[in-house]
Structure formats: structure tokens, C-alpha cells
Amino acid sequence: MKPRTNYTKSGEFNIAYQVVGNGPVDIIYIPGWVSNIDMMWSEPRLAAFLSRLSLFSRLILFDKRGTGLSDRTDEYSTMEERMEDIHAVMNATHSEKAFLFSHSEGGSVSLLFSLNYPEKTLGVMEVGIFAKRRYSEDYPWAPTDEEREVSNKLIEENWAHGNLDELRDLVPSLAHDSGFMDWFASYLRSGASPKAALLWHKQCTHIDVTDILGSIQVPTLLLFRKEDEEIKVDEGRYIVERVPNSKLVEFSGRDHLFWTGDTYPVLAEMEEFVTGIRPNRTQFQKNNPTGKKDGIDLEKVMSENFLYNLKVEEFAKLCGKSLSAFKRDFKDIYNTSPSRWIKTKRLEHAKKLLIETNLNINQICYDCGFINTSHFIKSFKKQYHRPPLQFRSNTLNT
């Protein structure tokens, strides 16, 4: 089910957050440059990655101030304010201690939070992060001022219409997938306006946590793809040499985005770091006729996730099965195909929302996992013999 978005106050700012799963330990995802926690669930690969984390944790997501569904600002946010946002979300979700999971620009505030609040930090998991974002002789991987100015200009000129050329460099494995690249451009625009995106991009230049690395004491897991051109693996090697209780794992791959490409090694390292148990790759694929594999219950996975915009292949992955094994086990349990069952369940939920809420048709469409309103209306009419609005009107007037 699509997670409910809530708000909590951090000073004068409303911070949007979501909670997914009910595992025994908390993981707080601290995003990079910009984010939108609602839009995350509209991309099957990202939704599958987050759902997998929620199988062994209580996953907490939020948009930092100035981005996504949280209140916007025209001013730089200090690291102290960013840490206040994390505090606010932890308080709102009654999280006393948590693992911090961060990506790219989110890594610096995670490290700083773990240093200042070790009693609240179980550990830090960082994917493709940096210690500073301005070139120096002792940190030559960061962009020069001239390179940053070029990037700033590209944002100013292209943000509104989503020039895709630069975005393709972040995800080479999907660079020629127009559907994904269109979503990615829309996701970034939904996370920040052109002015806000430029503001955050310029703020990155001032980030520098190199001086605190030697003082961090909490367990720290660093995950880097060796061919990532955005954040170099040498930056991970620099950090691991200086953070005392840290481990660096290097993977093959070029994508900067953690949820694309081969995600198994990333998820496996994270699960082992949190639970102490490492799933092997075959556990994501082997067949189990009972519908369970190593504690993963097919019926539970489907009942908790059918509203997410996931492909059948992604549901199979969540259940730890190959596609053919997933379909076979699904048929044994439900006596129908996954696609037909998912569509029926989504329409049943849409029917409930039409009767019990005042949501408009577009909202119900997206909340029920559909991505096209006309397709939703046509499917609903075929199932219930009336279009959604007529169904609502007739039902409420009887």
C-alpha cells in the first residue's frame, strides 16, 4: 500500500515524511540533492528497492526542507538546520535510534549527525557520497569552480524543460530508456523549482566534512560503484582511510543512482550490516512451493505492496523468486495470474476510496497504483459497469 504522507514541524518548516514497514529496527533515508517522497513510489525500481528495505526494518523517508513535499525556502539551509530536520522526523516517528541511509549529497549531513548524536545513530550506510564538493590538491576528485559554474548554467537554462543529456550521465544503464529518463526529469522537477535546484546545487560547493572524519565513531558502511563518474570511488577510499570504524565495499557498475543497475550487492551489504545476516543471490531467485523463502511470505508481500506501481518482475524480486517461479507459486495460491489479481485488488481499493473519501479521480488513480487516468476509468467501468464518478454519485445517493 502506498505509504501515507505526514508532516511534522522543524522550527517554522513543515517536513514531509513517510513510514514503511514495521521491522524491529529503524532505517532513516536521507536523500541527496532533491527528492519527492510521493514520486519515489511511481518508479518501479526505486519502489522495489525501498520495499525490500522495509522487509527487515521500519523505513522512514522524508524530504529535507526546501525540497519535495516539505516547505520551500529561498535561503541556504545550514547543516545544523538539516540535523534539526532529522531530529524532528525521529521525534514524530518515535524513533530513539536508527541506521542512517544516505546517498550522494545526503552523506555529509549523515556523517555530521552521527558525530554529534552517536546515541541516536546505530550506524551509517552511505552510497556514492563525498566529503567535499570543491576541488583542492588534497581532494582532486571534486569539481573545480569553473566546472561548477558550467553546471549552474545548465540548471538555469534546462531545469524547466528537463534537458536529459546531463541526467543520462547519472544512470548509464538506462540512458536510452526514454520512459525512465522522462520520469527522472519529472522527479527532479517535482523535488525543486529551478531557483531551489540552483540554490541547493550552489550550496553543495560549501560542503566540507573532511575535518570531522577522524572523529566519527559509529559503524560506517561505504558503498561505491567503481565506474561511477559523478562521485569517484577514490572519494570512498579517501573517506574509509579516515573514518575509524568504517568499511568500504566497491562494486562493478557505472550508475550513480543506487536503485538502478545491479542492486543485489547494495541491498545484500545493507541487510547484512543491519541484521547480521547476508542474503545470497540465489535466495532472491530460488523457488519455494509454499510461497515463502527465508521468511519472505508471498501473500504478505502482495497484500502490503499491491498499490505500488511495480512490475510483476519487481514483485517477484521482492519475494526472492525468479519470475517463472513467482508466477507458478502465485497461481497455486490465488488461482489467477499476478497481473489480473493486482488489477482487481487496485480496483477494489479504488471503489472503497470513491465511497469513503472526497479524493478526486486523479488522486484515486495514482493512490491505487495506476499511472494513466483514462486507463483507470476504462478499467473501473469494465469491472463495475459504471465510470468512477457515476459510481460514486449513484452509491452515495442511494
Report on this structure:
This protein has 398 residues and is α/β, with parallel strands linked by helices. It folds into 3 domains: 6-275, Alpha/Beta hydrolase fold, catalytic domain (Rossmann fold), CATH 3.40.50; 281-335, no CATH class; 339-396, Homeodomain-like (Arc Repressor Mutant, subunit A). The chain is 44% helix and 13% strand. The protein is built from 16 helices and 10 strands. Helix 4 (145-158) runs antiparallel to helix 7 (194-204). Mean pLDDT is 89; it is low at 285-295.
Q: How is the topology of this model organized?
A:
Layout: E1 6-10, E2 13-20, E3 26-30, H1 44-54, E4 58-62, H2 79-92, E5 98-103, H3 106-116, E6 121-127, H4 145-158, H5 165-168, H6 178-191, H7 194-204, E7 220-225, H8 233-242, E8 246-251, H9 264-275, E9 292-293, E10 296-297, H10 298-305, H11 312-318, H12 323-334, H13 338-356, H14 361-367, H15 373-384, H16 388-396
Parallel strand pairs: 3-4, 3-5, 5-6, 6-7, 7-8
Antiparallel strand pairs: 1-2, 2-4, 9-10
Helix pairs in contact: 1-11, 4-7, 11-12, 13-15
